[in-house]
Inverse folding.
């Protein structure tokens, strides 16, 4: 499965973005899919995940209420809606699928940069 993340950009604090993660060469079906983010010098941080078949979602405490993970089965695409952006949200956002353990997944996208200006 190949994952392609997109939708990042430069946005003002308080604004919104929607990130997309499209799968090819396979589907998300049967997998847990997730979003992570990483800043220079820091560990990759879990943001949100969804159990694709069940639709169950999980969020890091730091993003609850502002981030929404969703999916479109027909488009084989996962989304991350981010609202009320803060400077701390500046990071490279990665999508992943096929959970092995908490921060270990079989498939990773290339990342998309989100930069929040104050």
């Amino acid at each position: 499965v190949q994952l392609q993340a997109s939708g990042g950009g430069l946005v003002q604090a308080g604004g919104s973005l929607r990130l997309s993660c499209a799968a090819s060469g396979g589907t998300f079906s049967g997998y847990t899919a997730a979003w992570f983010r990483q800043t220079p010098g820091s560990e990759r941080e879990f943001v949100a995940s969804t159990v694709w078949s069940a639709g169950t979602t999980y969020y890091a405490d730091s993003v609850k209420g502002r981030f929404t993970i969703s999916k479109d089965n027909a488009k084989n695409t996962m989304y991350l809606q981010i609202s009320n952006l803060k400077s701390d949200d500046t990071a490279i956002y990665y999508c992943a699928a096929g959970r092995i353990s908490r921060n270990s997944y079989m498939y990773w996208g290339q990342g998309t940069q989100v930069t929040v200006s104050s």
